[in-house]
Amino acid sequence: MNKNNIAVAVVTALGFIIGLGFLGNAIKNRNKSENTISVTGLGTKQFTSDLITWSGSFSKNNIDLKSAYDELALDRKVINDYLVSKGIKQGEIVFSSVDIQKQFRSYNDANGNYVQGEFSGYNLTQKVSIESKEVGKIENLSRNITEIINRGIEFTSSSPSYFYTKLATVKQEMIAGATKDAKERAEKIAENSGSSLGNLKKATMGVIQITAPNSNEDYSYGGTFNTSSKEKEASITIKLEYEVN
User: Fold this and answer.
1) Radius of gyration, CA atoms only, the chain
2) What is the CATH code for 34-48+166-244?
3) Whole-model pTM?
4) I want to staple 41 with a disulfide (CB 3.0 to 4.6 A). Which of 93, 111, 125, 181 is the partner?
5) What single string gives the DSSP state of each residue in 158-209?
6) Is 34-48+166-244's fold the same as 52-162's?
7) What are the sequence ranges of the domains in the chain?
8) What are the percentages of helix, strand and coil residues in the chain, rounded to 5?
9) CA 152 from chain center: how many Å?
10) Environment class of residue 188 by beta-carbon count within 10 Å: exposed (0-12), middle (13-18) or buried (19+)?
11) DSSP class of residue 228?
12) pLDDT tens, residue by residue, 22-73
């Protein structure tokens, strides 16, 4: 066998050996990827809201714009004085700008067509809102707002909205709880299969869901945030993927 043939044989043999090495590593890595455990842990926390917002609106109608505005200003003063008398801080009371709408007498003609008639006056509406950490006080205020109506003011009250200012701390606690729950689940699965956990390969966190306790509210893909209940329950999931030895 000449030198060229020997060289070709050596290169071919080396290529075959290297190819077997790559194949062996591929099989090893494939088996390694299959030897994993994926588990999902849940972290929950119940808490009470520490911030409340509430709002209401009032309006006046008059054929003359200035008269309507003056009447609305009188109502605004009555409302402001009432809220202050109930212990609401002046800095917590916010009045919006005045919304002005022209009113027209409308009717349907003999053919049933809608007809906008002559101008009948102005409707002026203003909104008052409060944001406070005195949750109980504002709750009571919203329930007893008929006292303003009894003073001859056309007032419409909305339901309070409840929030929690320490949500970041709650979220950290839930993440820790969900991670612990997931790891314990993985350890139990590995133990029952006669294996042990290896390195953590991947961790995926879900979105935070905040609902009223013991409610049937649906979770949403982007996260649910209940504002109608003072008492709240938050939850979050953590998905962990471990190697198995």
Assistant:
1) 35
2) 3.30.110.170
3) 0.76
4) 181
5) PPPEEE-TTHHHHHHHHHHHHHHHHHHHHHHHHHHTT--EEEEEEEEE---E
6) no
7) 1-30, 34-48+166-244, 52-162
8) 40, 35, 25
9) 39
10) exposed
11) S
12) 433 433 344 444 688 999 999 999 999 999 999 999 999 999 999 999 999 9
Instruction: Give the DSSP H or E segment for 70.
Output: helix 65-85
Q: How many CB atoms lie within 10 A of CB 244?
A: 16
Output the CATH code of domain 52-162.
3.30.70.2970
Neighbours of 223 (CB within 10 A): 12
pLDDT digits over 180-211, tens only?
999 999 999 999 989 889 999 999 999 999 99
Q: Which two tokens stand for residue 200?
A: 């953590």
Question: Taking Cα atoms as reference points, which of 17, 193, 54 lies closest to residue 130?
Answer: 54
Q: What is the DSSP letter of 225?
A: B
Task: Kindly report the number of other CB atoms within 10 A of residue 96's CB atom.
Answer: 12
From the centroid of its chain, how far is CA 9? Answer: 69
Which tokens is 35 given? Answer: 């030897």
